[in-house]
Structures
1.
Amino acid sequence: MTRTIVVVTAGLSVPSSTRLLADQLADAVAAQVGARGEAARFEHVELRELAGDLATFMTSGGMPTQRLSEVRDLVSAADGMIAVTPVFTASYSGLFKMFFDALDTDALTGMPVLIAATAGTARHSLVLDHAMRPLFAYLRAVVVPTGVFAATEDFGGSTDLTARITRAAGELAGLVVSTDHVAGFGPDAGERRTPQRSAGTSVGPVTDFADLLRGHAG
Amino acid sequence: MQFGIFSVGDVTPDPTTGRTPSEAERIESMTRIALAAEEAGLDVFATGEHHNPPFVPSSPTTHLGFIAAKTERLLLSTSTTLITTNDPVKIAEDYAMLQHLSGGRVDLMMGRGNTGPVYPWFGKDIRDGIKLAIENYHLLRTLWREPVVNWQGQFRTPLQGYTSTPAPLDGTPPFVWHGSIRSTEIAEQAAYYGDGFFHNHIFWNKEHTEQMVRLYRRRFEHYGHGSADQAIVGLGGQVFMGTTEAEAKRQFRPYFDNAPVYGHGPSLEDFSTMTPLTVGTPEQVIERTLGFADYAGDYQRQLFLIDHAGLPIDVVLEQIQILGTEVVPVLRTEFERRRPAHVPSDPPTHSSLVAAGPDAPHHLVEPARATLEAAASEGARA
């Protein structure tokens, strides 16, 4: 079964070092998924192309544009995510945050996510753990232990960037390929094994009114 | 089919002059809009209810009572009545009183408010929003239908031997709509009681409206009130008209660009594509509005928002005139032309509900209960 991995990047220039890092991560994840006997398909979401849609969403009381709705569906239907942002003013960029603000709170529930960031210097590297990790924890995503931070200097010279990319990609591939949700087998903790995800783009299931009225009918 | 105006009642500076009307002027304007609606041959005027600036309509029954005294035919409604933070006992009394004063020209639309702090201001918790809407509305229905009420719930002090006065006019409670943009629970609530469902889709895309209305229609049928296409649906709309599309856009654009809800955001053109907003000729408004039935089905009430964002009162009155003379007469004919015979044209009114008699389902607190119980015993027999 081909796994779909959505690659969300918030680089602003074309080409951007953020996209460059994202592409390296995607290649590494493809190799790691392949090594586990499965195939991966990558869907790229360049947030720069959604900047106007996101501004419209924010200034119209949360009404998604057609394109934003399509991306929301794409994201929530994916098997995993690679999220890469440039560091702006000690955190992820505003554009990056706007995108995640525009998702439903259940949009990423249980989704394996690889976080990565780029910056001019290595002094910003804690952005991964102080900003990105809490964001995805709030959204109940499963963030892989290794985050990948690339300062400008990492794109040249001898650094261990490639090793970090490989390790993070292996962690993401492991989660994406994991097959522990074969129905009817294994321990039952009383909860549904498959996380319930919602893109927020369609009207959800209806609760029967008898349940809503229970305890309120006087 | 009913056509009308609904007003938010915002006090907004006119962006072309910088002038802000006083609260007194704005309230007076709302009255003039209602009177003009009747004069222009429209059917309904609905006022919002808000408890925060820059909005003036905090006391809808006071205002609607005043308008009732100055009109003959106009149906008075709300958009919306806060079923969450108002005491349902006071809603029962206030709107029954308005029924008597207006000769039954009243219905109302339940909603949950436009701002979070309205909950704590009235001693409620916003996290209980849906539960409040459910419990309070059930109590409201009971107060209008049972002469003596003994009641205990989660949110209000219990009632022992309480009688709401005055009783509804002719022993017939007003028809109720439930307005909700996104909450499926509210569509379900409207369906359960066989009430109307209003989707104010002026800030929303039609794909979403379609899903919400379809959900309501399906559940209306499930609860035994009729077939899905007979469910009572109302829609919002937002229009501005001129002699040409270019002229209408030229005149409306500064108001759009600075509007409180969507100003400084999407362009007028984008917003017109995304939502039902139509800025153009009366013919364009007719064509667009008729299109609503393509995704919402044949429906019973169309309300237009025309007086927000600081538009001057003279311009608003002119828009009502155009609606009444050039748009609504055509809409009436065309909507009836496409409507199947078994689909009601009008929502229930006081006279139709009185005519249906005291044994009609409208007089039951839970009209669906008999249907559900019959279905359950049918299932047990089978």
2.
Amino acid sequence: MNNILEVKNLSFHYDEYDIHTGSVTEGKKCLNNISFSIPAGSFVTLCGSTGSGKSTLLKLLKRDVITAGKTIGDIYLNGTNIKELDAAAISSAVGLLFQNPEDQIVTDKVWHEIAFGLENLGLSQAEMESRLAESLAFFRLEGISRNDTAALSGGQKQLVSLASVLAMYPGLLLLDEPTSQLDPEACEHYISTIKKLQSSLGLTVIIAEHNLDKLLPVSDMLMVMENGELLCCDTVDNALTILSKTDSGAKSDLPLPTRYGISINASSLPLDINQGRKLLMSNKDMHIFGTASSLKVAVSSPEAASSPKNGLSPEATASSTATASSKPLVKLNNVCFKYSHSGNDVLNDFSASFDAGCCYAILGCNASGKSTLLKLLSGSIKPQLGRITPKPGSIKIAYMPQDTDNMFIAETIEKELLAVGLKPDCYPEYISHIDRSAAPMDLSGGEKQLLGLAKVSALKPELLLLDEPTKGTDNISRCKMLNALNDLKQSGTAIIMACHDMTFAAECADKCAILSMGRLTGLTDCKTFFTTNRLYTTPTRTMTVGIIDDCYLERDILRK
Amino acid sequence: MTERLHPVSMMIFFLFTIILPAFTGNPCFYLLSFLMGLIMLFNTLPSRTVARSLTLYIVLPVLIACFNSLFYHDGSTILFYLNGMRITFEAFAYGMSSGLMVNSVLIWCRLLSHYFTGDKIMYLFGTFSPKTALIISMVLRFVPMYREHIDAYRNTQKLLGIYGEGTLFERIRGEFKIFGGFLSWLLEHSMTTSDSMTARGYGAARRRAFKLFSFKSFDTVICIIVLLSAGFNIYCIITGVFRTEFYPMIIFPPLSLNGFIAGIMFITVSALPTAADIIYRIKCRKTYE
């Protein structure tokens, strides 16, 4: 098979610029002696923990994007060294897309954005027209071709960017965490579009991503990076076998069924829920833990399956007794809200009460009103009907927006935290690994979220509102955030978070509900919520339903 | 149909209707131009909107006329004396005439701004300088986005209760802090924007702007008629067919065949888009029935 891409002994240093002396020195080695080759038409997933050099590698493969740094080694595209290609040839042969949909859209109209690359190549008008038409038709963007790019949803923006690159007819497509800012729905659509490009057009795709749940099942190859080195680059099965024997941080990003397979040393690792269920079925004897856990393996007889549940878990019982005794911290009474006069109600007769020291996860699809609810609670918008008691000003509320960038205004992390009265010696443990002289904007997605959390919790709020706290984070940051939130809860803070990430919600929240049709449906404790739901629940539950009763947390089936 | 005109022919049309009447110096021509503009405006905007702005078009000439007669006292027909100053009919008439001219320019400019949308401006720039066109497009994209973002910034900081409240001095200091934060955000994010532009070959080859509009036969018709009519009207202006004297007394030019033809030509040109619009609308209605 011919290789579209061949990389030989590639190493890279970023230039380090000293502000004080103005001298440029060789910085830390970002990539260390990497060699691999990719057959044409493969779908390659590139994984690795934050800072492992994924982005740098992708940018190097594109050439011209990284200018400050020293590259050693060679990259061959279709057998030609990319150093010998001219700028126009490489810009059309290799497409590169980035994480943030907002940043990579340059023009004001959709048609112009798609034509942007073609204009740069200086194509003739006729050719530009036909390629624009093609792209609009292929990506089904015809209906929005004359729209303003600013008015698009995140998912649409990513598709427009993709269409813009594809209009240049690349043979190799490099994607740098393209779905991390998208909601699950848009993410699934995006990945299926990429898969379609690969399978029906024969495009070679390399996609760097943290969340591998949807990606791994459609990938041909898996590349794993660790601290600037390439751990493996092989078919998915082989790479997983190699990966399972190491203790790389990338392991925690694997889909749950795969991690389950690794944890029981299965011979062939499952990639999706269905394969995971089959594996679990054949190994269910291993899961009778008896007294250690309330879990029981489901017996296939019907009366046993419908027998009463084993009772609530200890945490859930504790919190439910707490709610009975104390007065709610915040109460919403028949609140209605809509954004425009003619629009639909975003919240419709919304009533709920939230207690101190309890964590609530508000789930629901996009545009179901989760962010609106948080804004109402924070007091930045007022309900048009109904009442919130007490008034948002009378208790201390802290709000962490979806885009944490908005929270940071200082040059360094130290100054940032000093603004909320947090001195370096009393930093919470979960941000201790971050260099405190770094600029907040330079942090990775997960680190930004943690810093944001440190900032809001320093304000000692009674009510903490979190909008999508796990967006764009890796698993390690999620774990740290989980502990931090638990500590906050212990100190009596009520936490309300809008969330798409079920696994995180299940681990973190005491109570869960779906926001649907403008109301909070079935606010109940996490266990009941996730074990009774069939369609909208954690991957663990969908994998174990009918096999193990009352199991919805990852730690219930994963062995350390 | 007017909005479907090619930017070039649209620009030629509006240059003609805005500039030419102003140079005739003839109040009848001003009035004609104003009325033609008004017809087109009624055809373009909802009649209620136009009717509301009619007051302006009536008041403006009267105001200018009053001012002119207050400050300019030449002319042979004295209407009355005001504080010993002569108020003459000629000065008043000259003011009215100038007012009509301003009206005519205003109304055609209003139509221009309605029809000459951002994409048309960009097209015109794109033909001279593709880079300028790109900059315009980027400004249209990024300026509203930045404004939105700075609002989000302010809101978040306010909710955190760190900046945005307190005394005036504190609030101003807070605004500076927020702006500083916004700037660092901007620098960080524009790095990705520039990477994204490089990745799509910006600067790799000679840039050519994508043209959204095509030159149709209707555009050719408009251009030919406008240019012919402009040529003839300019000839008339130079030979003094329209010349009107106001001082010391009003002398209208003698009625001439040339003046008559020039007037007819102006009416034809300025009515052309409206006529096309009406025909188009009738055709559309037939389709829907």
3.
Amino acid sequence: MAQAPTKRPLSPHLQIWRWGPAMLVSILHRVTGNGLAFVGLGLLLWWVGALAGGAASYQTFLDWVWLAPAGGFQTVTALLGKVVLVGLTWAFFQHMATGIRHFVLDIGSGYELEANARWSSLTILFSVAATSLFWAFVLLR
Amino acid sequence: MGNGTSIGRVRGLGSSHQGTHHWLSTRLTAVGNLVLIPFLMISLALMPTHDFATVHAWAAKPIPATALVLIMINTFQHARLGVQVMLEDYIHEEGGKIAAWLFINILPIAGAAFGIVSVVRIALGGA
């Protein structure tokens, strides 16, 4: 930093404030976004690459991420795969809901304290509900 | 960048005049993802099975293949912009900034290229 060192007080940091819904969904937007970027896009590339590689490589993908026919270590990765896939689904719905919230904030609306807290809470409610419905549909139909 | 006069301390620290494009591009790709990702999720959820033949046949059709190519372009661009903001917030040393700059300008392009080549291979009947 080019500024001269200063003795002026620093602004209080995270632990000082009482947590509210807006703070929570703000950091959730960043966490889910980066999670989707690193884990989600990584898995997307593995999936599409395996699919392009042919039947054998696609089967390897399915075995390690979901099916675990070999047992042993594959059981662990397949369990992890299910957790990650459900987690990515939730992360997507949460990031989508807070992203739409950002669109609303971008037009200058939704800054009143009560409305801001209400819509923030609703994004979490939506992401949990949408994730449950999506996986209930996939697994139970 | 000097450290003597007050003007010397602030030279080179002003706006790069690229922020608006970054902001707008984030929104534009967000709208794209809003269409593309639900399309992918609904398509996968509606498939009768997820074996190779079913998924490969689906991905090889023109509309799904187009959507997958667009997903590779759109998600990687959106992710690149978002991860860049995160890195700008948390990385303060010059060496780290150079590493982050290399990372953010190379990896998303490489990832998207691999994804597109894969989809094209599926769609044009390789494997």
4.
Amino acid sequence: MDWQAIRLSLWLAALTTVVLLLLGLPLAYWLAFSRRRWKFLVEAVVAMPLVLPPTVLGFYLLMAMGPRSPLGRAWEGLFGSTLPFSFEGLLIASVLYSLPFMIQPLAAAFASVDRGLIEASWCLGESRLRTFLRVIAPLSWAGILTGVVLSFAHTLGEFGVVLMVGGNLPGRTRTVSIAIYDQVQAMDYAPAARTAALLLGVSFLVLTFTYALRRHQRKPWTLI
Amino acid sequence: MDAHLNADGPHLLANAERHYRGGPTVEARFEIPRPGFSVTVLFGPSGSGKTTALRLLAGLERADRGSIRFDGATWSHATEGIHRPPQGRDLGFLPQAYALFPHLSVAGNLGYGLAALDAHARTARIGELVGLLDLKGLEQRHPGELSGGQQQRVALGRALARKPALLLLDEPLSALDRPSQVRLRKELRDLLRTLDIPTVLVTHDRAEALQLGDRLVVMDQGRVCQCGDIQQVFDRPTDPAVARILGVETVVRGRIEAIVGGMATIAVGAARLFAADPGGLGWEVFVCIRGEDVAVERGAGPGSGSTARNRLPARITALNPEGSLVRISLDCGFPLESLVTRQACVDLGLTEGDQVCAILKAAAVHLIPHD
């Protein structure tokens, strides 16, 4: 088995989940509570990675990160390296690719918190931020957990975007799914089978754990 | 602004409106004249805008016309773009369904608004509230493990925790069963008097309004129809809509003279009434009598062959036909309304100024304590 690829995939998935959580909490809060008329536009953009072929997303990301794009030039000016085919580029791509898997469970959980509880907190003198920390977030733990698990698992299994943006550099951008693909291409079925079984097992365990934790939730629920 | 700058104005002056697109306009237009204990009741049928009016006071709805001033400070002023959020209004709010935090214990709920206090002071205050609201032994329970009455007390305690300057109660008793409601009305009024906080209370229950209120604000279809001292509003509804909302009953203040063997004797104006003792009475009561329960007889002599305990000499002050019925306004030492059939009225040949006898059973005299 390609342990280097497995380590890289786990590290990428963990970092992606952390970044998504930091981005996702305020964005999902805004989506859950904003009354802006153009909110639906943001919702549509956030959901895009659900329906877009990964190659299409990967293609545009590659264009956006390239040395001729403003982002690519700015990155090169700041860090002296290029984004495409780097771990950092892969991280940015993963965050965008898994965005709906974090945002949608969070926004759904926030929106289902009884409005009366939020107002009660305001009337007891607590600010919006403190109300979020003391009422909305604790009551949304199941949605937050779902978002974290789905983002992690989804990043672990991504293939198309990685191939487009990251390429296949051992130790830098070769993830576990790419490794399986390589092994199959080389007719090297035995390690491919072991790696695939490992991914299957990890995915199953993670989801079982999540469902088990949530089994006492009153509402029947869907993952997204 | 300083409180004393407004010393001559009313303590609370609300004159604000909220428009709903394609829907009604709801107004909060009333005042609380003085600081200290008083209960202002927002009363009206469901959908009349009572709750929205209360939410305007709380700052949970933004007024788009008019202003709200409390204790010399401007809470809301539409044209000047002032809207103080609920956090800045120093109020205690008891929402209709209580909205207790389900993830916190009773102690956690009571202490929720006390984040500014240090741990010691917070624990002390929670202890006070537990004693005040009789929640001993329940501190570590969660809201889901409490009865309706206990939840109500926790919600009230949470609203009182920060010693607010104004208390807003939205249907505080309506989620409880009937016997608890009746029992808790007295407790609630006693408690509010002890705390000496001005209170605005929303209810659609007339008995609750009468027992708890000092001032009545009658609302219908988003509008404030009438506002004033509770007895005054019941005595002199400004228009038929208010009278309809208040109901057909005669409502007068009375004073208990004696209670013997389950029968209460009440002095009402210049007259004396007998009523069944509902229990829990103080000295002051509201006497409620439905027009349908009042019969009218010729002659004022003492009756013999009747079970009716109340026979009151009365003079007819007005006769108003209402469909197949006639509403007879009587003066029997206090104003009393009787509703009889048109035929009965013709058979007896009743006219204005006639001396008659108003008859009502003791069981038809409903007493609501109001101390």
